[in-house]
Amino acid sequence: MITLTLAALALILLVAFLVKELWRPANYPPGPRWLPIVGNTPLIRRMASQHGGLLANVFDKLSESYQSSVIGLKLGRERVVVGLGYDEVKGHSLQRAFQGPPWLPIVGNTPYIRKLARQYGGQHKVFELLGKTYRSDVIGLKLGRENMAVALNYPATTSATLDLALMMMIVHPDVQDKVHREIDSQLEPNAIPHYDDRLKLPYVEAFLLEVQRFFSIVPVNGPRRAVADCTLGGYRVPKDTTVLMGLRNVHMDPDHWGDPEVFRPERFLNEQRQIVNTERLLPFGQGKRRCLGETLARSCLFTFFVGVMKRFCLVGTDEASEDGTSMAPSLTLKPGITLSAKPYHVVFQPRKRT
């Protein structure tokens, strides 16, 4: 009798557990059904492996399948809502309910990071799914100071963007010629580039903006935490839900950009050669939690790029690596939390200015 009672109690607890695990909040954004404990994690990983390892591509497919710019998921036991349109990104940045401190993954294995992890504790690592990250190197940290995230992420994103900008000089020699001509006509031969020079070099600035739009090296912005029940795109986002924003989707929206798959710096210039059309360019995020290192990153990117292009002409080569792999520039990026260019060969030929 006691055994039967315990079995019945265990069955009741199991059913209650499964109901709780499988329960979908009322008016929660559309998305695939999830499994107990693991949620949608196996599905997302499988889809990522089928689409270049990029979580942004997975979100694109889910958005198409469910005909919605807001997707509701569960990764592990954590609810995750993804906004994929400009209206959702803008609304997310304006609502105070989405300004909760996130649980951020920090890629690294240093003793200092481990010490912080022990001090602050861990949580589910949502961003393990951002590309092909390695579990052993991802540590969940609840950071009270976002300066930590900026300090760790700024060099990687800036160097990756500069690398891609130089690569596009090889891919588009006509664009490189325009960059050289503008620099030669506006800067003195021995002048050291300064960030203020961007006012004299609108085409160069437009080119760098197009690099950031075209590649979107941080394709998914976040995570943020909902500190109260709120709405996004008309759907309910329960308190403590993790919220991600698909910046790449905004940057590749054909309804706004017209030809997003075409690399065209001129889209950011008007007839008076003034910078325009930047309101939907969000490489540094938006709102109160916009990247704190934005000004420094823009300054370094501009001055480094102009400094290189002022002195060199970039030319690709037909060489291959030792294992026979082509080292030509590729528009397909290496997946990860921050996307980056695949290795390529380039020759820096010193320029002679007339």
In short:
The chain is α+β, with helices and mostly antiparallel strands and 354 residues long.
Protein architecture, described:
- Its cofactor is heme.
- InterPro entries: Cyt_P450 (IPR001128), Cyt_P450_CS (IPR017972), Cyt_P450_E_grp-IV (IPR002403), Cyt_P450_sf (IPR036396).
- This is Cytochrome P450.
- By secondary structure, the protein is α+β, with helices and mostly antiparallel strands.
- The protein has one domain (26-350): Cytochrome p450 (Orthogonal Bundle).
- The protein contains eleven helices and ten strands.
- The chain has helices at 2-22, 41-50, 55-66, 86-94, 111-120, 147-171, 173-186, 202-215, 247-251, 254-257, 294-311, and strands at residues 70-75, 78-83, 103-107, 138-142, 220-225, 230-232, 235-237, 242-246, 312-316, 346-350.
- It has a four-stranded mixed β-sheet.
- β6 and β7 form a beta hairpin.
- α6 (147-171) crosses α7 (173-186), α6 (147-171) packs across α8 and α6 (147-171) packs parallel to α11 (294-311).
- The chain is elongated, with a radius of gyration of 23 Å.
- The protein starts with a helix and ends with a strand.
